[in-house]
Amino acid sequence: MKIIIAGAGAVGTHLAKLLSRDDQDCTLIDEDDDRLAGLDGEYDIMTLQASPTSIKALREAGAQNADLFVGVTPDESRNMNACIIAHAMGAKKTVARIDNYEYLAPNLESFFNELGIDSLIYPEVLAAIDINNGLKMSWVRQRWDVHGGALVMLGVKLHEMCEILNRPLRELCGPDDPYHIVAIKRGSETIIPGGNDELRNLDMAFFMTTREYIPYIRKIAGKEHYADVKNVIVMGGGKTAVRVALTVPDYMNVKIIEMSEERCERLNTLLSTCDTMVIHGDGRDISLLEDEGIRNTQAFVAVTDNAETNILACLTAKRLGVRKTIAMVENLDYVSMAEELDIGTIINKKTIAASHIYQMMLDAEVNNMRSLMMLDSDVAEFTAAPGSPVTKKPVKALGLPFGMNIGGLVRHGEGMLVNGNSQIEAGDTVMVFCHEQNMKKMEKYFKTSSLW
Prior knowledge:
Blueprint: E1 2-6, H1 10-20, E2 25-30, H2 33-36, H3 39-42, E3 46-49, H4 55-61, E4 68-71, H5 76-89, E5 94-97, H6 109-115, E6 119-121, H7 123-136, E7 142-146, E8 151-157, E9 179-186, E10 189-191, E11 204-210, H8 214-220, E12 231-235, H9 239-247, E13 253-258, H10 261-270, E14 276-280, H11 286-291, E15 299-302, H12 307-319, E16 324-328, H13 335-340, E17 345-347, H14 349-358, E18 365-372, E19 377-383, E20 404-411, E21 414-417, E22 429-435, H15 439-442
Parallel strand pairs: 1-2, 1-4, 2-3, 4-5, 5-6, 12-13, 12-15, 13-14, 15-16, 16-17
Antiparallel strand pairs: 7-8, 8-11, 9-10, 9-11, 18-19, 19-22, 20-21, 20-22
Helix pairs in contact: 1-14, 7-9, 7-14
């Protein structure tokens, strides 16, 4: 495929990384030569210093033959204009990064399609969804819902109270058991487990289960003593915080602490329709946190623009007794450090947005995809096409490459786990887990094919 990315910022460069591992014909455009410096050597891509709305530059980049054009500069209007121009030149599919929530209204989708913009990405909205999913389950580090939760993947940090430690998985995850362990993170190592592998203290285990067995997973993981989240303190009053406050479950009470007095006034206007308290102050101030009830708070969310500030604030909140902490960490160099410090849930907007865009270039039907930073792996929901290879043999006979795992499927709205004897049917939504660089290889199993 030929892909053009306009904007060599955080999202654009991460997307280029995802695409370069698949040997795609990718061109990255940016006006700032410093942003492009060295990228063509680091990744297998072409770079072009030019304006993303220049017709001459787009023609030079090959927009007329592009399968996918992506506008992810910091300027919403420039992204949309670039997509419109690229579409008019012949680009088959376009996606634009935006920062205006109004544009995401369902009734405007056809309007933007007619303009030549096939998809809109608002990273702060995607991040807020992840944050709210994390708040709903205080004992879970990462959660992935398939078909509205019919099938669920839960990332859980295990401690000594977990009752399934130090036993071979073949004794725990048989065909009739209500969960599978699809991956284990042990230190810096990612394990795609087999029957002889065991769970150990301090492992991050990824459980695949169905909705009704979530309480059971909580019990065997030793997490029943974790209080459900009712009170939440959010540090930082940016766009992500606004989306969190507007979409958080009604039973949660949210306080936002923001340092800028002017921004606090703006927040009071933006959040006038919801019961959110806005506090002017520094979320790192322990005395302020004490005054605002940190001791009676079940979750602390740090979403300022500074990764170090967010990490340190979460550490402070944990020291003050908060069980659930969530940190926005935009600098990928700090992600591993945050994991080692046991921060809790880590949110990175650029990887979320890049993964959302990446799924658009897959030939098979993919409903959702996410890069799991801590595992260097991807997870996606594939829909099995009629006549596709995955529907012709039981799972154990498919010959899936090493590092790929089918965790479960949803059929007619009902979630079910998958074992070696399972037969996938056309129309099933299948949860696929695989190491990086394998997702493109996996799609061939789900496309209609006459070769099998």
